[in-house]
Amino acid sequence: xxxxxxxxxxxxxxxxxxxxxxxxxxxxxxxxxxxxxxxxxxxxxxxxxxxxxxxxxxxxxxxxxxxxxxxxxxxxxxxxxxxxxxxxxxxxxxxxxxxxxxxxxxxxxxxxxxxxxxxxxx
Length: 122
Description:
Blueprint: H1 2-29, H2 35-49, E1 56-58, H3 65-93, H4 100-114, E2 119-121
């Protein structure tokens, strides 16, 4: 089921969304300060390609001081916009029964988009 879900996801927007994250991440990597944020954006882009069959897992260092600082900066600059985008599309897709599995993927990606440091998608 996850293979079919990932294929449908890619065709109906997952590919464009993932490429957008990767292009944004490359843009962030052009600055020295933006490199850690760019790498997380690129990682988020690759996670967006195939979300079915994966979960957000918290790493042991998820609550360290540096991770918390990076997450606060991420939320303040760009994370809130990405999370709202996933929330919007998740709510739109949750209206129909057919869209429920795709809404669930958007809600998983919303958590990762809001707090990407100290978490991974496996």
